[in-house]
Design goal:
The structure holds two protein chains of two kinds. Chain A is built from 19 helices and two strands. By secondary structure, chain A is mostly helical. In chain B, strand 21 and strand 22 form a beta hairpin. The chains are: A mainly alpha, B mainly beta.
Chain lengths: 465, 354
């Protein structure tokens, strides 16, 4: 091995660095500047006040607008009433008004370019029409409500801040999961440390250490599923224990009450569970497959019942979404929001920085694919799992027809591992140490540009009137 | 490399990356930046009879540039325009004047910068600027207007002219509370040639209008949006309203055709209340102040590095310096692990997993 073996203290240093890095973002990301934060805080607020995410009142449209339920309250409020039980209209509207007041106080409307005029806003429809978080599965919001309770938060801003600490914890846990998945692939502790570092220093992921959004939990569940799959593939004894199947079912159940974006990781973990013992007992493999299939069907039904907009409702819609999802525009949007976009994606990193980053990432991924051909000391099956996770996650985004970089994050450990493998296989063996040093410096420099020239300037210097 | 040296080198390198990344951060940025994204309503071709302007309060010294977005509304787009900057009010002394040809393409709005000698002591002062054709003839280029409010009904510019002078009626559901204005696109509208009046009723059979508004002579429009503003209706959310729009005989509204092949006017509705503590004091037409709308524009003043960092420090509530320190430490740790390696990195190798 030409590279020095890294040690546990080194990985601890990377984790400490990640903690400080996450805290930096926690300090600098202004309130309500994480995408869709008002809606997520609203949902968690209602749970924290003792309401449950079921038992709501179905909304009614009508042929005549005068008979439409929107005469009673705004669409964003009707959607809250549809999901959450025993909510009075006054409670829904007061919550939205309190959050809107906080958004005004924290200069939200001066920062987000497409935000409308703030004078006289009374409900969320006046910020973004027909939008809600309440169609999302409830687990994240239950945990958020718990955080709100523990922090004894009373104002929307306090609730937001309490939930942002969850984001920081999620960010750190995902780095740990990346370490663990990488360990199943290789004995090379340098590569493991590098994978964790990359996971921590992808700027848009570091920024998520300060964002209230259920993507924070989705990426953790995705990471846990990939780890479960990787553990199966890395086992020397190719059979599945009942406890492992139970763990998979539990993770799938958690995935279904977290977010639809985890579905690709569910598929990958299921694939790993089925593929690993396939050479051994066929009966157990079949049983595991059937159990996974039943769990998937139940989850799909649950998502449909919660009005998830992620699921297409007809073949025509599916075709339409695929067309949009696979378009160049969508790919470009995916890249734009993966590499760096600010103020609710209304402003971008300079094109030059984005292009250099795209070239760098493409180079690393190509090197990783090359490594698939001759895996060396790395476990090829785990590398394939990582590649599969990346492709499946992109497939999910294409099926959704709407792109955002954060939708890739459930597969982030896999992406970080692929990039790390690429970095350690760029160039001749003798210069690997220097190449990896260069990659690390490049990531830190990209983060610096993102944070100090992008986020800081766009959030604090460029304000609209 | 000895451990201490490695730590020092890592810290120095982290600091260096931070410093390089903030080169140019002190570059000036707009002090006033009227946002309207996407831009919704253009004012119509500039004319010397009723030049648009804006009254604003300048917070910083060294005002030296005002930008406006223009759009070409007809093939002829090569007119020259003049910006006149006045002290205090539309009637104030002209302080600066700048004339240029915007050089617009037909692809959409383009920002045009009017640069002038800096006004050293502009901080805390009130100014007015107006935009007028430089050659005393109406032009086919237009500024953009931001009306104060959220849009409810928000149809785009139509594809046909409606019959000139025809009174238009229609019903709609108001999307939001505080319904306060409607905007209709017109080919030409000269209120001096006839009354342009909008009346809002709570139903088509009501006799008494809830609100009525008539445009003044200064509100002339040439291929742009005509705003009919009135006292906000507070409880307007999801209420049905009926409008009646009377226009002068020469005026052709822009419309579209519906599914029953009827020609209808297109329009936008605006909802909301005024904001307090804004440096924007309102748009002017021919010197008449209209506080419910602004021209879309940006102002530029002198920005020194010290001012920029003071602004950053104040807006971040003092956490900027702590965040910078944390970031440097984090980067130092990573650089120490991966870049500035020391022999003792190998001292306690972990047993790799089986």
């Amino acid at each position: 091995m030409l590279l020095p073996m890294k040690t546990r203290p080194d990985r601890s240093l990377i984790l400490i660095a990640a903690l400080l890095h996450g805290l930096t973002y926690l300090l600098l990301l202004p309130a309500w500047m994480g995408e869709d934060e008002p809606w997520h805080v609203e949902y968690a607020h209602h749970i924290s006040t003792g309401h449950m995410p079921w038992g709501g009142v179905e909304m009614q449209g009508a042929a005549r607008p005068e008979d439409d339920d929107r005469r009673l309250m705004a669409l964003s409020q009707l959607q809250v009433r549809r999901r959450i039980g025993d909510l009075e209209h006054s409670e829904i509207s007061e919550t939205q008004e309190a959050i809107l007041t906080s958004m005004k106080d924290e200069d939200f409307f001066r920062r987000v370019d497409f935000a409308p005029w703030s004078g006289g806003t009374e409900n969320f429809d006046q910020v973004q029409d027909a939008f809600t978080a309440t169609h999302q599965p409830p687990l994240y919001y239950m945990l958020g409500a718990l955080a709100v309770k523990i922090a004894k938060a009373t104002t929307p801003l306090e609730e937001l801040n309490a939930m942002r600490w969850m984001a920081l914890a999620g960010y750190l846990l995902l780095i740990v999961l990346t370490f663990l998945i990488a360990r199943t692939m290789t004995d090379d502790l340098w590569l493991i440390a590098l994978a964790g570092f990359i996971c921590a220093w992808i700027p848009m992921h570091a920024r998520q250490a300060a964002v209230v959004n259920n993507d924070v939990l989705a990426k953790l569940v995705g990471g846990a599923l990939l780890l479960a799959g990787a553990l199966q593939l890395s086992k020397t004894k190719r059979e599945v224990k009942r406890s492992e199947v139970a763990l998979l079912i539990l993770l799938i159940a958690i995935a279904f009450v977290t977010k639809t974006t985890v579905f690709a990781c569910v598929l990958c973990a299921g694939f790993a569970y089925v593929a690993a013992p396939a050479r051994g007992g066929g009966g157990k493999t079949l049983a595991a497959s059937l159990t996974c299939g039943v769990a998937l069907a139940m989850g799909y039904g649950y998502w449909r019942a919660t009005h998830s907009p992620s699921l297409p409702t007809s073949w025509e819609q599916l075709g339409d979404r695929l067309g949009k999802g696979l378009s160049i525009t969508n790919l470009s949007e995916l890249w734009r929001t993966s590499v760096g976009a600010f103020n609710w994606y209304s402003r971008d990193l300079p094109v030059g920085v984005s292009s250099v980053a795209l070239t760098g990432f493409a180079l690393l991924l190509t090197a990783a694919l090359w490594q698939l051909r001759r895996a060396g000391k790395n476990d090829r099956s785990i590398l394939i799992l990582c590649l599969l996770a990346l492709l499946a996650q992109y497939g999910m985004i294409a099926l959704r027809g709407v792109s955002a970089g954060r939708y890739l994050f459930p597969a982030l450990p896999a992406i970080a591992i692929l990039l790390a493998v690429g970095a350690t296989n760029l160039g001749p063996k003798l210069s690997r140490e220097r190449v990896v040093a260069g990659v690390v410096i490049a990531f830190i420099a990209m983060d610096a540009v993102f944070l100090w020239r992008g986020l800081l300037v766009e959030q604090y210097l460029v304000w609209g009137n | 490399m000895h451990s201490l040296k490695a730590w020092c080198a890592s810290a120095f390198f982290a600091l260096l990356i931070l410093c390089i990344s903030i080169i140019g951060i002190q570059r000036a940025r707009p002090v006033i930046d009227v946002r309207s994204i996407p831009m919704l309503t253009h004012m119509g071709g500039l004319s010397p009879q009723s030049p648009p302007g804006e009254l604003f309060h300048c917070d910083e010294d060294g005002l030296h540039q005002i930008d406006l977005p223009f759009v070409a509304i007809a093939g002829s787009r090569h007119a020259r325009v003049t910006l006149k900057l006045r002290a205090d009010s539309p009637d104030g002394q002209v302080l600066r004047e700048s004339t240029l040809a915007p050089g617009l393409e037909l692809t959409g709005p383009a920002w045009v910068s009017f640069k002038f000698e800096p006004i050293e002591d502009s901080g805390g002062e009130m100014f007015h600027f107006s935009i007028e054709p430089a050659d005393e003839a109406a032009t086919s280029i237009s500024c953009w207007v931001r009306y104060h409010g959220q849009t409810g009904i928000n149809t785009a510019w139509g594809d046909r002219f409606l019959q000139a002078g025809e009174t238009q009626r229609g019903d709609f559901i108001s999307a939001h509370a505080h319904f306060r204005a409607m905007a209709f696109p017109v080919e030409t509208l000269f209120p001096s040639l006839g009354s342009a009046t909008l009346s809002i009723y709570d139903s088509a059979i009501s006799k008494e209008p809830l609100r009525t508004t008539t445009l003044g002579a200064h509100d002339e429009v040439n291929a742009g949006w005509a705003f009919f503003a009135f006292e906000p209706i507070p409880e307007s959310r999801w209420r049905r309203y009926h409008y009646v729009l009377e226009v002068p005989k020469h005026c052709r509204l822009i419309g579209e055709i519906d599914e029953n092949r009827r020609e209808l006017p297109v329009y936008k509705t605006f909802h909301g209340l005024e904001l307090k503590d804004s440096p924007l004091l309102g748009m002017t037409r021919d010197g008449v102040l209209q506080r419910d709308r602004d021209l879309v524009f940006r102002t530029w003043c002198d920005d020194s590095a010290r001012k920029v960092f003071a602004r950053l420090s104040s807006r971040t509530g003092g956490t900027l310096w702590l965040a910078a320190l944390l970031w440097v430490i984090a980067a130092t740790l990573c650089l120490k692990v991966f870049v500035f390696l020391t022999p003792d990195s190998n001292a306690s190798e972990e047993t790799p997993p089986s």
